[in-house]
UniProtKB/TrEMBL annotation:
Family label: Belongs to the MreC family.
GO annotation, cellular component aspect: plasma membrane
Alphabetical UniProt keywords: Cell shape
Record has S-adenosyl-L-methionine as a keyword: no
Pfam families from the UniProt entry: MreC (PF04085)
Domain of life of the native organism: Bacteria
Protein name: Cell shape-determining protein MreC
InterPro entries: Cell/Rod_1, Cell/Rod_MreC_2, MreC, MreC_beta-barrel_core
UniProt GO BP: regulation of cell shape
Keyword field contains Signal: no
Length: 289
């Protein structure tokens, strides 16, 4: 307390100056119309600029949530577009009445999408890996599919409490079932190194009919991915090593170099149905033996 009083006594003339200066400014701007208008205009400019900066800062911090929402929305819209395309194809081939019961959309809504951010990503290795900031505590499990707003990313490989490691398409161990959209021919997606923009779809049958730039989508033949998630488009066609099938060189729809926001696809209901079917098959085999 003594030090505070000594400080005030030592610099009392500065405090008196500040008080008198503030009082004079208040009297000047309050009781003089011209000076008051100048103060009001200047204050509005400063306040407006401060509010503008504040708005920009809030917008910057909200970009993360906006990107997550767009990623989810893109996945839903892509899926619905594929289903509508399939129904339109059915109409052109079959004169049966078009039904709008939306059962396919409801089935897709059974998938729960878990938002996540990429915190580590490699592109130059033969077996690249991606780490995301969601784990078992968020509902992520091994072998769940991962996608982004533009297409397939990979499959969950390892899970800890708060983090997960993904085997992306850009990994020699990746093996995802795909189909040529609207053509009905199936193959398996592989990456053999090199460009992060290209991969191969193998085992396309020799009798298959398709053309360049046809889209490749997930087949839905497993519980990992629903059918119709975009993978890429056909750029070149080669013969397989044994000459018994085609090998398609495709341009991937996912830009792995700029990958930030992803969604883990949780389809617990589908997995339960698969487990039940396997249990029934095992039971039948046991009885036969």
């Amino acid at each position: 307390m003594r030090n505070l009083l000594a400080f005030l006594a030592k610099y009392n003339h500065w405090f008196v100056f500040i008080v008198l200066e503030v009082a004079s400014l208040v009297l000047l701007f309050r009781y003089n119309s011209y000076q008051g208008s100048v103060w009001f205009s200047s204050a509005n400019v400063v306040a407006g600029k401060v509010y503008e900066w504040d708005s920009q800062i809030e917008a910057l911090f909200s970009l993360s949530s906006v990107n997550q929402e767009l990623t989810q929305r893109n996945l839903y819209l892509e899926r619905q577009v594929n289903m509508l395309s399939e129904k339109l194809l059915a109409i052109t081939k079959d004169s049966a009445e078009f039904r709008t019961d939306r059962t396919d959309v409801k089935a897709f809504q059974g998938y729960r999408l878990i938002d996540a951010k990429v915190i580590s990503n490699t592109l130059r290795d033969k077996d690249n890996l991606i780490t995301i900031d969601k784990g078992a505590a968020d509902g992520v499990k091994k072998d769940m599919g991962v996608a982004c707003g533009t297409g397939v990313v990979g499959i969950v490989y390892l899970v800890s409490t708060h983090y997960s490691v993904i085997i992306p398409v850009l990994n020699s161990q990746s093996n995802i079932s795909c189909t040529i959209k609207d053509r009905g021919y199936f193959g398996y997606l592989h990456w053999t190194g090199g460009s992060s923009e290209r991969a191969f779809v193998d085992d396309i049958p020799r009798h298959a009919h398709f053309k360049l730039y046809d889209q490749i989508v997930t087949s839905g033949y497993s519980s990992v991915f629903p059918p119709g998630i975009l993978v890429g488009k056909i750029m070149h066609v080669y013969n397989s090593a044994d000459g018994l099938s085609y090998r398609l060189n495709i341009e991937l729809s996912t830009n792995f170099g700029r990958l930030r926001d992803v969604c883990v696809i949780d389809n617990t209901e589908m997995q339960e149905r698969i487990d039940l079917l396997r249990a029934a098959q095992d039971s039948i085999k046991a009885k036969e033996n």
